[in-house]
TrEMBL record:
Organism: Methanimicrococcus hongohii
Membrane as UniProt keyword: yes
Taxonomic classification: Archaea, Methanobacteriati, Methanobacteriota, Stenosarchaea group, Methanomicrobia
Entry GO terms, CC: plasma membrane
Principal place of residence: membrane
Sequence intervals crossing the membrane: 35-64, 84-102, 114-131, 143-169, 181-202, 222-244, 264-291, 311-332, 364-383, 389-411, 432-454, 460-482
Keyword Transmembrane: yes
Protein name: Amino acid permease
InterPro entries given in the database record: AA/rel_permease1, APC_superfamily
Subcellular location(s) per record: Cell membrane
Signal sequence extent: none
Molecular function terms, GO-annotated: transmembrane transporter activity
Record key words, sorted: Cell membrane, Membrane, Transmembrane, Transmembrane helix
Amino acid sequence: MRCLSDIVVIIRNQKGGFVDSDCTLQRSIDWKQGLAIALGVPLLILPSIGTFAVTLWAFAIVAWGLSVLQGFIQNLAYGEMATTFANASGLPGFAQTVFGAGTKMGKFIGGFSAWSYWFAWNPVLAIYSILIGDYLSGIVPTFIPAFASISPVVLSIGAGILIFAALILINARGVSSGATVGYILAVFSLIPLFVITIAPFFTGDFHVENITGAWFPTDWDWGLSHILVFLGIMATAQWSACAWETAAIYGPEYKNPKSDVPKALFACGLICLFSFVFVQASVTGTLGISGIEEARVSPLLPMATQVFGEWGALIAIVMLVAAMVLIIQTAFNGSARSMHSMAVEGNLPSYLAKVNSKGTPMRAMVIIALFNVFLILAFSFLNESGGPAAILSASALGYVFANGISLLAYYKAATDPKFKDLERPFKAPKGWKYVALIFAFVNLVLYLVGIVYLNATDPAIGIAPTLLGFVVLALFIPLWWWAQKEQNRLCDTKSDS
């Protein structure tokens, strides 16, 4: 019997690719299809619109723009790695491939980066289930009075369980079934967000003075405290505004990666730059800071009602909910495959490496669903303004670690003799390894300190989500130890035979 580490070595060649044709990704998409994969990313702004406006006032518009620009810097590095390591599954795969090729500690660092990335995407399920419950509780009782007695907490839990169960059943039939549902929901992804946010400019509900007269909170002075708060906001913002990395990580599947990767990246980045800045500006200009504070969790609901009336708002919100289900499915599939990837690499117990007859990692999906039901239960009982933002603040810790370590992996791949001479169909600008090193420091030091400080000083969030985030990240240690003991037993069995 081969131990798992032997299997990984056998199937991976020295250039980071796979020699087994059954494991090789097919170059079957162009840059337009790669762009389509990431078109749901603008919806990731929804949980943070209220929190950012309450904290930074209108300057939140600028913060989103800066965060998307940061995404350009980081994603150029990820785009290069996507075409260098032929079978690496995005950020988790990059870090595991580069660091896992060295010492035991390197293998742990790569695995921890993958675990951090899993924790960054995984809570999307809980966050958007809570948002769905909140949006439905704000509009549906108007038309179905029986729903008036149902609390947003119950609606969130019910919505989460139903959506998770449905997606498990659909995806159990294989990725093609999930993709079909994704295509249907994709029609609804940007349309409601665009319609709700552009309409106030035509109806006269948008007032520019709500922005120009409220750039910063009245006590903002750019002292140390406010600098730390801003760093925390930027750490949280990248969870949404830099997530268009999904257009780059499919590098091995582009027909012509040298041209397709930059086209998909820049097209998606420009869309995100416009959408994140525009949505925050529209909401701020329409509702004002006080109006956003009154609807901190779901500010698009009063906007839709104000612009379209109750029936128009109902249609827009139902479409928006469908779009949120699309985001949940994207995160669900990505999280399950991240866990599966870690198990295959020997960084999680092999139990999670099992797939069903259709190739779906069902065990991972069930565990993820149960974990997110727990998150909904835990955070829905916070005060009304805390739920989604509190979960996001914990999840963003994972993204900080994942980005920081992945950027270090890029630097190592550019300087380590084992990797620096590999073919790179798409290359970031010359000297980009030093830029990546700087932003690794920004993530692992400045953003980490900032997000801990921001959470601790925000009464709507508090320190509890931060502590929970560190606990979840620390769970990787016993799980990794378990996986290593399991591999050692398999290797011992091989030696004895």
